[in-house]
From TrEMBL:
<dbReference type="GO" id="GO:0005524">
    <property type="term" value="F:ATP binding"/>
</dbReference>
<dbReference type="InterPro" id="IPR050173">
    <property type="entry name" value="ABC_transporter_C-like"/>
</dbReference>
<keyword id="KW-0812">Transmembrane</keyword>
<protein>
    <recommendedName>
        <fullName>ABC transporter domain-containing protein</fullName>
    </recommendedName>
</protein>
<keyword id="KW-1133">Transmembrane helix</keyword>
<keyword id="KW-0813">Transport</keyword>
<dbReference type="GO" id="GO:0016020">
    <property type="term" value="C:membrane"/>
</dbReference>
<dbReference type="GO" id="GO:0042626">
    <property type="term" value="F:ATPase-coupled transmembrane transporter activity"/>
</dbReference>
<keyword id="KW-0067">ATP-binding</keyword>
<keyword id="KW-0472">Membrane</keyword>
<dbReference type="GO" id="GO:0016887">
    <property type="term" value="F:ATP hydrolysis activity"/>
</dbReference>
<keyword id="KW-0547">Nucleotide-binding</keyword>
<dbReference type="InterPro" id="IPR003593">
    <property type="entry name" value="AAA+_ATPase"/>
</dbReference>
<feature type="domain" description="ABC transporter">
    <location>
        <begin position="73"/>
        <end position="283"/>
    </location>
</feature>
<dbReference type="InterPro" id="IPR003439">
    <property type="entry name" value="ABC_transporter-like_ATP-bd"/>
</dbReference>
<comment type="similarity">
    <text>Belongs to the ABC transporter superfamily. ABCC family. Conjugate transporter (TC 3.A.1.208) subfamily.</text>
</comment>
<dbReference type="InterPro" id="IPR027417">
    <property type="entry name" value="P-loop_NTPase"/>
</dbReference>
Length: 283
C-alpha cells in the first residue's frame, strides 16, 4: 500500500524487469571472466614456448647444384644422446651406404634404430663423430637444406585439421593427377570416397585406422621424390597383401630418383629385398 501511494505500479514493474536483466548481465560477466582466465593460461603457455631455446642451426654450407647427387651416406663413430643428463643412445655407430641402395635396419626395441633417423635429420645433435651425405658433413649444412633432401615416414604419423589435399601437399606443388596416382600406389584411393582430395581430416586423422594413417604418411613421403627415404615401421599395421603391393610401389617410385632407402622393420618379409641389413644392438 505504501509503495502504491508513493510509486507508480508501472515503475515497480519496470524495476523488477531491469533487476532480472541485471542478474543475467552479472552471469555473463562471470562467464567472460572465466574465459579470460583460461585464455591467459593459453597465453602463458605460448609465452613459455616462445622462450624455449631454438634448434641449433650453425651450418652455413650451401652445396652447389643438385644435392645430393648420389645420396651416399657415411656414418663414422657417431655418438648421440637426447639430453646432456641422459645416457648415450648411439655408441660409436659406423657404416657406409652406397647411393641408391635399400638398407634394412633391425634390432630389439631400444637398440637405437629410430635414433639413427633422428641423427640423420639432426632432430637431435650428435655428441661426437660425423655423419656425411655425399661426403659433406650433415652438421655443416643448414637444417632447411639438410631436411629438404630427406623424407621420413614416422611410427606415429601426424596430420593437420583440413582437407586430405592440404595434408598431402600443403603448398599445392603437385597436380591432382599426381596426388591420385600416389594415393593409388599405396592402396588408399578407395578410402577417399566421393569427397576425393577434399576429404576432411580432423583429430590427427582419427577417422582412419592406424594402418591407413601410416599409408597416408607414406604417400606424403613418396610424393616429394626426395633422394633419401627413411621409413620407421611404416608397414607394421598393414596386412601382408597390402605390404607386398606397397613395397612394389615404393621400389618403383624410389628407383625413378635413385633414392637411398632406409627401412626399420621387425617383419623379415619387409626386409627381404634389402641390399644390406644393418643389425643394431644397444646403440
Amino acid at each position: 500500500t505504501l509503495c502504491r501511494d508513493f510509486v507508480a505500479p508501472e515503475l515497480i514493474g519496470l524495476t523488477i524487469v531491469y533487476s532480472i536483466n541485471m542478474a543475467g548481465l552479472f552471469q555473463y560477466m562471470v562467464r567472460n571472466s572465466v574465459l579470460v582466465e583460461s585464455f591467459m593460461t593459453s597465453f602463458e603457455r605460448l609465452h613459455h614456448y616462445e622462450a624455449l631455446p631454438r634448434e641449433a642451426d650453425e651450418g652455413q654450407h650451401e652445396p652447389s647444384g643438385e644435392f645430393p647427387r648420389e645420396a651416399r651416406i657415411d656414418v663414422q663413430d657417431v655418438h648421440m644422446r637426447y639430453r646432456s643428463d641422459l645416457p648415450l643412445v648411439l655408441k660409436g655407430l659406423t657404416f657406409s651406404l652406397a647411393g641408391g641402395s635399400k638398407v634394412g635396419v633391425c634390432g630389439r626395441t631400444g637398440s637405437g634404430k629410430s635414433s639413427l633417423f633422428m641423427a640423420l635429420a639432426r632432430l637431435a645433435e650428435v655428441t661426437s663423430g660425423t655423419l656425411r651425405i655425399d661426403g659433406l658433413d650433415a652438421a655443416s649444412l643448414s637444417l632447411s637444406r639438410l631436411r629438404r633432401c630427406i623424407s621420413w615416414v614416422p611410427q606415429e604419423p601426424s596430420f593437420f585439421t583440413g582437407s586430405l589435399r592440404f595434408n598431402l601437399d600443403p603448398h599445392r606443388t603437385y597436380a591432382d593427377d599426381t596426388l591420385w596416382k600416389t594415393m593409388k600406389s599405396v592402396q588408399m584411393d578407395e578410402q577417399m570416397g566421393d569427397e576425393g582430395l577434399e576429404l576432411q581430416i580432423s583429430d590427427g586423422g582419427s577417422r582412419f585406422s592406424c594402418g591407413e594413417r601410416q599409408l597416408l604418411s607414406l604417400a606424403r613421403a613418396l610424393l616429394q621424390h626426395r633422394r633419401i627415404l627413411c621409413m620407421d615401421e611404416a608397414f607394421a599395421n598393414v596386412d601382408f597383401e597390402t605390404d607386398n603391393r606397397v613395397q612394389a610401389a615404393v621400389r618403383e617410385m624410389t628407383s625413378q630418383v635413385a633414392a637411398t632407402v632406409l627401412v626399420i622393420a621387425h617383419r623379415m618379409q619387409t626386409l627381404a629385398d634389402s641390399d644390406y641389413i644393418l643389425v643394431m644392438e644397444d646403440g
